[in-house]
Design brief:
This protein has 13 helices and 15 strands. It has 422 residues and is of the alpha+beta class.
């Protein structure tokens, strides 16, 4: 019989455990604890000790309202769910702890993958992570947890994630080469059009918030507000990177004018050559370069309109969060008007390069997708295809589990929820 004990961890000890655990993540850190405590949630760092070593841990949240009290562990607990004895002990202890707090239920969302898929959602061989972790699911169900099921669609804690393995990628050239051709072109195109990526300071977060709000209204998702992003930055500090991709319109116009002038000289030369001695080849070249010149003139006219908005134009913004084992792309937004500048592709490339490749971090987490791969009309199709362009893979998590802690209170809460949904 193994000897386990439940212990309370310091924030520093918990962060160290999360940093080295196979499923450690930004939701299971003291930064997440500070963020939630600032929102009025009671947080604790609990761990299981065996032979003097911490072998499991959880940022344990207690939520209280006038109507109910419940406990939650987001993206956790951090535990080897294949280890039945450890899992049984930890869940029993967490249940007792939740009961002592007066909770009706305890919800957990394990970060441990259920199985991996290829970029298009296809099955992978068992030795590549494709075997489903049914034993872990059954262990939790046998302990009294109610499984929310193998759902698809967007959820608050995404069950479906898109990731990129950066193992062996050591510089920008190899990183760029790892994308598909279309995404390579988009990144290069943005860089050639005067788009630059920089990090926003805490006093500049309104720029991020404005872009996020406009995107939320356009795509009909929840907008969290500048106050939330400010609290997020304060909680995560240097681990949170609010990045913006900006169009330097003067640089773009100067580059386009230079290209236009070169094209104009080509057209003049070809025209003179054709006038002197018309041939099919010269006529074809003249037609092609004339079209290129017309396109350049059109882009310059469009640029003149953009210039009316200002000298430096925020086109896309994203929030990236560092964890010891990965960088997570958490929130983003873009300005529809500036879509032709491909700023969203460049900001992803910049984050992967500076927050992963240069730090020696091999895991880049694009975070949520809806888990639908065979429907071109699905709500999340555009998001999926954008992320697929960076050539990654899909991680399917086990999903959400709820454990009734006080059965009568849980039953009452469930009944009230059903009534409210009618």
């Amino acid at each position: 019989m193994r000897a386990f004990s439940l212990v309370t961890l310091s924030p520093e000890a918990f962060d160290d455990f999360s940093a080295h655990h196979a499923d450690g993540n930004f939701q299971q850190t003291s930064a997440a604890g500070r963020l939630r405590a600032g929102q009025g949630t009671e947080v604790e760092y609990l761990g299981v000790q065996e032979n003097g070593k911490i072998v499991a841990g959880a940022l344990f949240e207690t939520h209280r309202s006038r109507l109910s009290t419940f406990s939650v562990v987001h993206d956790g607990p951090l535990c080897d769910y294949h280890d039945h004895e450890l899992t049984e002990y930890f869940m029993a202890q967490l249940k007792q702890h939740a009961k002592a707090k007066g909770s009706a239920q305890m919800e957990i969302v394990p970060e441990m993958p259920y199985r991996l898929h290829d970029s298009r959602g296809g099955e992978l061989p068992a030795d590549q992570g494709g075997a489903p972790a049914d034993d872990a699911v059954e262990t939790l169900k046998n302990l009294g947890f109610i499984h929310d099921g193998f759902t698809i669609g967007y959820t608050a804690v995404p069950r479906w994630r898109y990731l990129k393995d950066l193992t062996g990628i050591t510089d920008e050239k190899s990183l760029l080469k790892s994308y598909d051709k279309r995404t390579q072109w988009s990144v290069k195109r943005a860089a050639s059009m005067g788009v630059h990526v920089c990090e926003l300071g805490e006093d500049e977060l309104q720029v991020f918030a404005d872009i996020e709000q406009a995107t939320a209204e356009r795509r009909n998702f929840e907008y969290r507000g500048e106050a939330y992003f400010r609290k997020f930055k304060q909680a995560y500090g240097s681990k949170a990177h609010f990045m913006v991709a900006q169009i330097h319109i003067g640089e773009y116009i100067a580059d386009m004018e230079s290209k236009r002038d070169v094209l104009r000289k080509k057209v003049d030369t070809l025209q003179a050559k054709y006038d002197e001695h018309p041939t099919t080849k010269t006529g074809r070249q003249l037609g092609e370069e004339s079209r290129n010149l017309a396109a350049a003139e059109k882009r310059l006219a469009e640029a003149a309109e953009y210039a009316k908005d200002g000298d430096v134009l925020p086109a896309a913004a994203s929030l990236f969060v560092e964890h010891a084992r990965e960088t997570v792309y958490l929130f983003s937004g873009s300005v529809e008007k500036y879509k032709p500048f491909y700023a969203s592709a460049l900001i992803q490339h910049d984050a992967m390069l500076h927050l992963c490749v240069e730090r020696g971090v091999a895991r880049y987490n694009f975070y949520g997708i809806d888990g639908v791969f065979d429907d071109p009309n699905s709500e999340g199709r555009g998001v999926l295809e954008f992320k697929q362009g960076f050539n990654g893979y899909v991680e399917e998590l086990m999903g959400s589990f709820v454990l009734p802690v006080r059965p009568l209170a849980f039953k009452l809460k469930t009944s009230v929820r059903k009534l409210l949904r009618r």
